[in-house]
């Protein structure tokens, strides 16, 4: 039997704590269990090195995002080695092989109409002279009335668009941003609704209740197409004309890591992925 285990990618903007290890340890236990049984195991993970929290942290410390990700990636590797984690490969999302693979996949999706261009309204800070990616915006959650980030409310878990927040503020300078029109690239997630419903039905027996409930919630709300481009300086360049000044949204970058790292492992070990 061939067993694939994807360990969640720790985010390289702060040190690991015991909660990370508690969440990651079961993957290592399962990998060791199947190896002991003589099965073929591929156990991959890496550091998630892109996205706004890293840019925000770098800005705060007045150093480059690369310095932040190097610091935490090296710290993670050291911790996993000391703890005896048995990853077959542990890499990072700013690895050149990963970047090239992500760009190739985005090109394929675009050429097949699964990524398309859409004009959207987005918040722009006139004082900072830049469009604000969602985590660069803060305001009041329309559902629970607590302070929330532009992408999600951590108190009530509602997925948000920054435009839904009340009393919006730029997280960099604190002033009120204005609404402007801009073009972004979107992944046609809605096209996969039927397929994902069938997949969920078939998986009910094997998934944990938590995973089933979350998936059901998204399907019942109706799947929304999701932006894959962002106005950031830190991340993977978008390989599509007209989007040279934007970066790949970290959700698609990081999740593709399981595939790209498997391919890299196969190349390095003369195996087939
Ligand atoms: Zn809320
Ligand atoms: Zn600002």
According to DSSP, the number of beta strands is: 12
Tell me the fraction of residues in β-strands, as a range: 15-25%
Strand order of the largest sheet: 5-4-9-10
How confident is the prediction overall: mean pLDDT? 94
SSE order, one letter for each helix or strand: EHEHHEHEEEEEEHHEEEHH
Structure in words:
The chain is of the alpha+beta class and 273 residues long. It has eight helices and twelve strands. The protein has helices at residues 18-36, 52-61, 65-83, 96-111, 193-203, 209-221, 250-255, 257-269; strands spanning 2-6, 40-47, 89-92, 115-125, 130-131, 137-140, 147-149, 166-170, 178-187, 226-227, 229-230, 247-248. The radius of gyration is 20 Å and the shape is globular. The two termini are 14 Å apart.
Question: Can you give me a brief rundown of this structure?
Answer:
With 273 residues, the protein is α+β, with helices and mostly antiparallel strands. It contains eight helices and twelve strands.
Question: How are the elements arranged and paired?
Answer:
Elements: E1 2-6, H1 18-36, E2 40-47, H2 52-61, H3 65-83, E3 89-92, H4 96-111, E4 115-125, E5 130-131, E6 137-140, E7 147-149, E8 166-170, E9 178-187, H5 193-203, H6 209-221, E10 226-227, E11 229-230, E12 247-248, H7 250-255, H8 257-269
Parallel strand pairs: 1-2, 2-3
Antiparallel strand pairs: 4-5, 4-9, 6-7, 6-8, 9-10, 11-12
The protein binds zinc ion (2 copies).
Throw out a few tags for this protein:
single chain; 273 residues; alpha+beta; four-stranded antiparallel β-sheet; three-stranded parallel β-sheet; 8 helices; 12 strands; 21% strand; globular; binds zinc ion
């Amino acid at each position: 039997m061939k067993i694939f285990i994807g360990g969640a990618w720790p985010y390289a903007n702060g040190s690991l704590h015991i909660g990370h290890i508690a969440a990651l340890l079961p993957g290592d236990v399962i990998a060791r269990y199947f190896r002991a049984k003589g099965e073929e195991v591929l156990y991959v993970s890496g550091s998630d090195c892109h996205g706004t929290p890293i840019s925000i942290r770098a800005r705060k410390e007045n150093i480059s995002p690369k310095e932040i990700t190097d610091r935490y990636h090296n710290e993670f590797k050291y911790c996993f080695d000391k703890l005896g984690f048995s990853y077959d490969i542990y890499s990072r999302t700013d690895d050149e092989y990963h970047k090239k693979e992500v760009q190739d996949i985005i090109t394929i999706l675009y050429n097949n109409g699964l990524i398309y261009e859409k004009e959207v309204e987005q918040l722009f800070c006139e004082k900072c002279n830049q469009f604000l990616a969602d985590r660069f915006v803060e305001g009041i959650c329309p559902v629970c009335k607590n302070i929330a980030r532009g992408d999600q409310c951590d108190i009530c878990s509602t997925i948000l668009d920054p435009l839904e927040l009340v009393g919006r503020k730029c997280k960099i300078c604190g002033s009120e941003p204005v609404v402007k029109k801009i073009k972004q690239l979107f992944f046609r997630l809605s096209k996969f609704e039927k397929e994902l419903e069938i997949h969920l039905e078939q998986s009910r027996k094997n998934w944990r209740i938590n995973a089933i409930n979350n998936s059901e919630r998204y399907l019942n709300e109706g799947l929304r197409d999701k932006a894959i481009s962002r106005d950031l300086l830190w991340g993977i360049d978008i390989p599509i004309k007209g989007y040279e000044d934007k970066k790949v949204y970290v959700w698609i970058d990081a999740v593709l890591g399981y595939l790209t790292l498997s391919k890299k492992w196969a190349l390095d070990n003369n195996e087939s992925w």
